[in-house]
Amino acid sequence: MKERLEEIKVKALEAIQEADNDKYLEELRVKILGKKGELTAILKGMKDLSKEERPVVGMIANEIREIIQTSIDKKKEDFKWEELKNRLIEERLDVTASKDLVHIGHRHPLNQTMNELEDLFRHMGFSIVDGPEIETVLNNFDKLNSPKNHPSRDMSDTFYFDESTLLRTHTSPVQVRVMENQKPPIRMVSAGRTFRFDEVDATHSPMFHQIEGLVIGENVSMANLIDTINAFIKNLFGEEFSTRYRPHYFPFTEPSIEVDVSCFACKGKGCDICNHTGWSMELLGGGMVHPQVLENCGIDSEKYTGFAFGMGVDRITMVKYGLDDIRLIYDNDKRFLQQF
Ligand code: DAH
């Protein structure tokens, strides 16, 4: 009987070892330890044993029962761990994975243009300066030699806070700030927001953007202005573009000019967009800084001369990207903005 018990133990342990699932283990348990199991049958047969043998065999049988039960329990535990391990692998969440769902935006076309303009001038040796959007009437008009009766001063054209403070109507007051705070030679550009009391339509917005340039030094001439603008236009739009200079009037420059650039659609041949003139009109205003403006800002106009220019960044953005309505720039419609 002892041999039989030993045999059951060895076979049971082998079978448990080879078991590959929980269900099979349970079947094994029933087959060996269950009410009708092999080991149980042996225990039932113990009544035929002698008095001396009975407790010995009983002890061995119980030991074996325990060994088998422990072995089954351990195997079941192994299965549980195995299953958990597999689930962890299967359900792993890789938080580092970069999915296409992450859309990183880009700069607004207007800011792209503004940065590009600043970069071009930086490469030409200009420094970049910033000016406030809330300005004094003094800087925005008076020191720039703007006559007291100039229409742009009118309440209907300018956003005033009070008699002496306003939202700047152009970036030109930055010239004043720089001249008052720096000694020549000066070479700077300043881009930013400007404001005028305009009705919104395809070409007007009460808030728009300009970039201003100022160069002051000894012997700075109109030739330097033209050369700088020509180089800038060719850098920005391409070598094939030409410029045309027309006389104009600005209170803060003398002489003053306006600059046209060959039409972007037909490159100067003449088309519907340029009214068959071959030119994109009024892209830029400029001139030689008026001696009175130099004096107003504490610069000796006998010793120094300078040129200045200003242009609309919105206008340049529209021309550059072929936009026919300024409102597109400010609508913040993603379908539009995603294209650039
Ligand atoms: N401030 C002018 C405007 O808003 C543009 C301008 C013209 C700026 C001539 C200048 C300049 O610096 O010299 O229309």
Describe this structure in words.
The strands form 2 sheets. A 7-stranded mixed β-sheet has the order 1-5-6-10-9-8-7, sandwiched between helices. Strands 2-4-3 form a 3-stranded antiparallel β-sheet. Strand 3 (about 160) and strand 4 (about 165) form a beta hairpin. The radius of gyration is 44 Å and the shape is rod-shaped. The chain has about 350 residues and is an alpha+beta fold. Helix 1 (about 1-20) runs parallel beside helix 4 (about 55-90), helix 2 packs antiparallel against helix 4 and helix 5 packs across helix 10. It contains 12 helices and 10 strands. The longest helix has about 40 residues, at about 55-90. The structure holds 3,4-dihydroxyphenylalanine.
Helix-strand layout with pairing:
Layout: H1 2-18, H2 22-33, H3 38-44, H4 53-90, H5 109-123, E1 127-128, E2 134-136, H6 137-140, E3 160-162, E4 165-167, H7 173-181, E5 186-195, E6 207-217, H8 222-237, E7 243-250, E8 253-262, E9 279-289, H9 291-296, E10 305-312, H10 313-321, H11 327-331, H12 334-337
Parallel strand pairs: 1-5
Antiparallel strand pairs: 2-4, 3-4, 5-6, 6-10, 7-8, 8-9, 9-10
3,4-dihydroxyphenylalanine is lined by residues 170, 172, 212, 250, 252-253, 285-287, 308-310.
